[in-house]
Amino acid sequence: MKFTINRAAFIGQLNNVLRAVSSKSTIPILTGLKLVVDNNEVVLTGSDADISIETTLSGADGQYQLTVEEPGAIVLPARFFSDIVKKLPDQQVTIAVTDGFQAQIMSGTAEFVINGQDANNYPHLPEIDTAASFEVAADLFADVIRQTQIAVSHQESRPILTGIHVSLADGILTAVATDSHRLSQRKVRLENVGERQVDVVIPGTSLTELSRMIGDVKDPVKIQVTDNQALFVFGNTRFYSRLLEGNYPDTSRLIPDTSETTVELDASAFLAAIERASLLSHQSRNNVVKLTVDPQAGLAKVSGNSADIGNVEENIATDRMEGSDLEISFNPDFMGDALKSFGQAKIILSFTTALRPFTLVPTEDSDQFVQLITPVRTY
Amino acid sequence: MKFTINRAAFIGQLNNVLRAVSSKSTIPILTGLKLVVDNNEVVLTGSDADISIETTLSGADGQYQLTVEEPGAIVLPARFFSDIVKKLPDQQVTIAVTDGFQAQIMSGTAEFVINGQDANNYPHLPEIDTAASFEVAADLFADVIRQTQIAVSHQESRPILTGIHVSLADGILTAVATDSHRLSQRKVRLENVGERQVDVVIPGTSLTELSRMIGDVKDPVKIQVTDNQALFVFGNTRFYSRLLEGNYPDTSRLIPDTSETTVELDASAFLAAIERASLLSHQSRNNVVKLTVDPQAGLAKVSGNSADIGNVEENIATDRMEGSDLEISFNPDFMGDALKSFGQAKIILSFTTALRPFTLVPTEDSDQFVQLITPVRTY
């Protein structure tokens, strides 16, 4: 194996594949990066058993300035190899396998020799046929993940809740996550998916990693699922994730369809007030912030306190308030995560009683996106 | 106590004073920030007992837009107070002491009430007369600290070596630090200091903190020392540091005045090669990099290795080499720190034997600045 490549372009692809590589792994070879060199391409693979990322660097793509002298394959220590490549002196780097599983890395007058492993010992990635895949615009799919991953559970006690429930039916893609204290749901209408049906639970960590990679991808992401894997194809990259086994709870009945009190306001201004109040609630034992709404008097107020340190009170600006008086307490971090998912938008908060879950929806496309939060009982 | 001030200008000064405040302190009141409000100024004080910083915000300085309604004083929890001020909604903030030691912080519609402490319980800063102080250009003094603090010891076994030895004699300011493996010495000629003599050891941590504050100060820093304190005055800020007690070892005889081998090269290019070699040495038990010099053959080479991972070898570019052949091993982190202190300059490395300390000096002003490193015996 021997090839020469443009170092900057190579580093860009290395960084992508490294997202899947964990520096500690119960399977030692997975701390490595697999390089497979063909006549006119280099394929990089990284995996932590949950996620696998495979990127193809083609000689046809001029940015790589790729010259292959000899095909071959090797597994090199991933972090260490990438640290070396990043620090090399020259614009080009030549990588060659010499005796056995030793690799030579040459750039300018610097020459590294590092110990690798036999590429035949690297686990095989699942073979997935992408002929029947469906497509979603990359930036839209990244938004869907960003808006729902906040409610993914980090508790291993109910493993199924550490995933995002992704389904496709009647041309509508739905993503739902809940940790049983809050819930995020986003729907997107897809074109050209025909009668295609999908119903899978994908680990939240996989999708969060994926969303970081596709945020500025121009082409749509091709998605294909099998019994136990999901595959996302974009640009020259294939991103594999295992699926979670088990049935996701039925979340459709959790979202209330009536309300007693509604408040319309600016998400980002309200977020700033919540963050101020949380400065105090974070210092107290039960991290709770209170919202008091009096639609008749036109008053809405956020307050927080910590017995040791002090208290805070702030009147908040609203665009519209309707319904009954209300005093409701909640975790300001849940509220903050939900508000951030709306960006600069105007939103509607809908409450039933002080002890029932309440919802946040954008004023536009309010049936496409909902954040639900369970309040905290403070007495 | 009650005053209103421009929030952005206030935050700038808060950040400066916070440098002295540690969030954990054996003296609880030192986790606080003292505010003293006079008719037309606010004085902020922070201290961790080693360093104290006092900043005066004068109403005469328009950027503060200061209005004092009522003089007074209070101590407020430092980090928490500054977090609040940073998150407030309005351009202005009003701070008032209400009942007892409670402070009200108002900005826009947000109103915080936080518990403070009696300012009379805050330790008094030493009273130091600055009439006889001497002056050093701020950016120059920041350089002197930056160039010598790398050799300060972090071992409490010899406390005196955790300081920088600062002396002034015959119009020359000398700063020296050594951890007994390496030594940094910088000399600067000062104007208008007459017969002034100074000989003190200032904690390295104090000077490093000071250097971060004065890097972009225009006016010179006024320096005054007493038996147990040093005071640095710049702009509207007074920076106090305790001194270390005891005699600093005589370092003047440690710097060799002859050499067998000299190499002249570019500090930043050599640094890059050392950092590449250290990628491997950092993976081995005895973090060592080897330099091989053969002036007759015109060859200089850096190499590193780790039994587990591999090895690296790199020919380095030199401007001039003279003297005997040499093979010398050293800690690449010590070499890296020393090389960084020269920036982009050309430097001269001077060696006697493979087991004796060697020096690095800039080709210009070579008698003003020296870095010394003790090699590592590898056999």
Tell me what you see in this structure.
The structure is a homodimer of 379-residue chains. Chain A is of the alpha+beta class. Chain A folds into three domains: 2-121, DNA Polymerase III, Chain A, domain 2 (Roll), CATH 3.10.150.10; 134-252, Roll (DNA Polymerase III, Chain A, domain 2), CATH 3.10.150; 255-373, Box (Proliferating Cell Nuclear Antigen). Helix content of chain A is 18%, strand content 40%. Chain A has six helices and 26 strands. Chain A has helices spanning 7-18, 78-87, 138-148, 204-214, 267-281, 332-340, and strands spanning 2-6, 32-37, 41-47, 51-58, 67-70, 72-77, 92-97, 102-107, 110-115, 134-136, 163-169, 172-178, 182-189, 198-203, 221-225, 229-234, 237-242, 261-266, 289-294, 299-306, 310-315, 320-323, 326-330, 346-351, 358-362, 369-373. In chain A, the strands form four sheets. In chain A, strands 14-11-12-13-26-25-24-18-22 form a nine-stranded antiparallel sheet. An eight-stranded antiparallel sheet of chain A has the order 6-2-3-4-17-16-15-10. A five-stranded antiparallel sheet of chain A has the order 5-1-7-8-9. In chain A, helix 3 runs antiparallel to helix 4. The model of chain A has no long low-confidence stretch (mean pLDDT 95). Chains A and B meet through helix 2, strand 9, helix 5 and strand 21 of A and helix 2, strand 9, helix 5 and strand 21 of B. Strand 9 (110-115) of chain A pairs antiparallel with strand 21 (310-315) of chain B, so a sheet runs across the interface. Chains A, B: Belongs to the beta sliding clamp family. Chains A, B: GO terms for molecular function: 3'-5' exonuclease activity; DNA binding; DNA-directed DNA polymerase activity. Chains A, B: Residues 253-377 form the DNA polymerase III beta sliding clamp C-terminal domain. Chains A, B: Residues 1-126 form the DNA polymerase III beta sliding clamp N-terminal domain.
